[in-house]
Specification:
By secondary structure, this protein is an alpha/beta fold. The protein has one domain: Rossmann fold (3-Layer(aba) Sandwich). Helix content is about 30%, strand content about 20%. It contains 9 helices and 13 strands. Strands 3, 4, 5, 6, 7, 8, 9, 10 and 11 form a 9-stranded mixed β-sheet that branches. Helix 6 crosses helix 8. The radius of gyration is 22 Å and the shape is globular. About 30% of the residues are buried.
Amino acid sequence: MELKSPQPTSTKKNFLEKKTLLAPKTSRVKSPADELPVAKICIYGHWGTGKTRTIFELLEMGYKVLCLTTDIGGSGTSTVVGEATRAGKLDLVRKNCKEIELFDYEEVKEFIDDPTKYFPDIYEFDPDFVYWDGFSSYQAIDVSEAVGGMARSGISENRQESASEAVKEGIQFEQIHWNQIKNVTLRSIANFCSLHNKKTGKIWHKVVLCHETEKGQPLIQGGANRLFGGAFNLIIRTVKTTNGDVESYKYLISGDSAKSRGVKFPTSMDANFSEVWKEIQKQLGFEMGSKNPDLIEETLSYEVDKT
């Protein structure tokens, strides 16, 4: 078997036909003061509390937003369209907001591994923010369905009789399956948070939208809920109250589930995401469009001659 030039040095797994190689990483030793801040924000609350409206506020500030949707009801960006229509700014949505609806675990994994499969011009569109709308639904439906399929095929012959029908159908889980759900959930959010512009090294800020439990926590099932919050530097709970015909919206940034790392906010404030973002920029001292050359994935392509 003859390798055609160029002949890169690589690990065994790279020696595949038409394999793309990544340039070697630079030193990982650096001062925290030299790190480019990346916002990783979780916004959670009941439906109708203003989570997706934050997209429109960022569009009004001149930013580009890409929204991945995995919610149980499909696209939730009608809120964005409604706000823009009432404000006479629908062209802003057409120009600077893109949405990709993903329907199962495999599609989510494919997108995170290679976004160009679903959005060939993603690096040219180059969003400032990437949203994931419907993460709670993704975990409850898509992740559990994927693990349930593995559970069905993994029941040994000597357990066929003792296993419940629900386990056989993949809709009830045993401890080993909950561990799998936890692992898939955390890997999905970690890999999502690492997305960036591979051509320019531009930082993409992340916002994940979740539903809320009856206890006022992000709706994340199983053991994943104990580690999920570690992915974010800001967790905001959205709340709507009604007094007669008057509706008011609040952000809560306190308590066991809310979180603020590196930025100080009041424990409760009026819901205004543009002001939140301005304060993040001010306190962390960074500008939008920051680029990290270490994130550029220069590639070398080669073919293996199998003759």
